[in-house]
Specification:
Largest sheet: 10 strands, mixed
Helix content: 40-55%
CATH topology of the largest domain: Rossmann fold
Radius of gyration: 25 Å
CATH superfamily of the largest domain: Alpha/Beta hydrolase fold, catalytic domain
Number of strands: 12
Structural class: alpha/beta
CATH class of the largest domain: Alpha Beta
Number of domains: 2
Length: 348
Amino acid sequence: MARRSVASSLTRAYTRGLRTLTKAATKVTLSNGRRIGAKIKRAAIAQNKPPPGPGDWIAGMALGPAGARRFHLYKPPGVASGEKLPLMVMLHGCGQTGRDFAISTRMNRLADRERFLVLYPEQDRIANPHGCWNWYETRSGKSRAEAATLLAAVDQVCLIYPVDREKIAVAGLSAGASMAVLMATHFPTRFKAVVMHSGVAPGAAQSSASALSAMRGQRTPAPSTAVGKAMGAALMGTTLPPMLVLHGEADSVVTPGNARSAAAIWATASGAQVGLDRMLQRGKRHPMRQTDYRRDGKVAVTLCEIKNLGHAWSGGLGSQPFSDASGPDATKLLWAFVSAQFAAGESA
């Protein structure tokens, strides 16, 4: 009898202890859940918050062959009735959002001063879990479908907002740079200029496996071969828009040789010849080697190789990932190049 009483006491004690542990564990779980939920909520609020700038940060969505893609359009303040503004399309890199890219590059601040619109398409994580544009999926046709969907975003913005359709340019960083070049390749008449910052040379990859090799510099096509693979029928009866190539010589993610290869490929397709290079440096910023490729006296490609710059937007906001404040200001370099092409189009 005593044994049953002891056993019963132990059972009751065990049950009480188990209840206490369960309650404690439940409290911890709920507390952790609330903390995680609050963290997610704060991140969502921060991501939806407009980047710095007095203009309008307008959300939208475009439908195309690759499905739906969100975008934001930055419109500077004080646009007059009937006024038409140039459009700068900015394609973010892997792991970034359009908002991240806007903050890093500070493009909106320049748009306020120079009076142009900025379109920031955003990759869907269902289409790519790392947020990369699928520029390399040429064999499957996925890259062309995505490029066409991005063009649908451009068309939608042109239809609704005051865009000067003769003054549209596209630029990107890393995967965004490679996609920008792909868009200019497939739709060369739609863009007056293309800017490639830290991207892979066109024609260097046709799948995800070959993309990694290309990034490491293990697949660098000869210019004449790449022209056929990357450009194909898109070049028939058309002229490629001028291209600005920016790349850090200390880039450990995308081998710097991709920049030289991209410049040579574009120059070959444009019938341009390489000129002399020159070293440029402003203040204490990283020095830069600039090389122009010209045809009939006009610049077809400008290559800027930046000393000591890694895989980052040159001259960007230093507090942001993939951004190096010590480099020459890529945002200003970009606009100087693009606006020169816009002006050339006006005088043609």
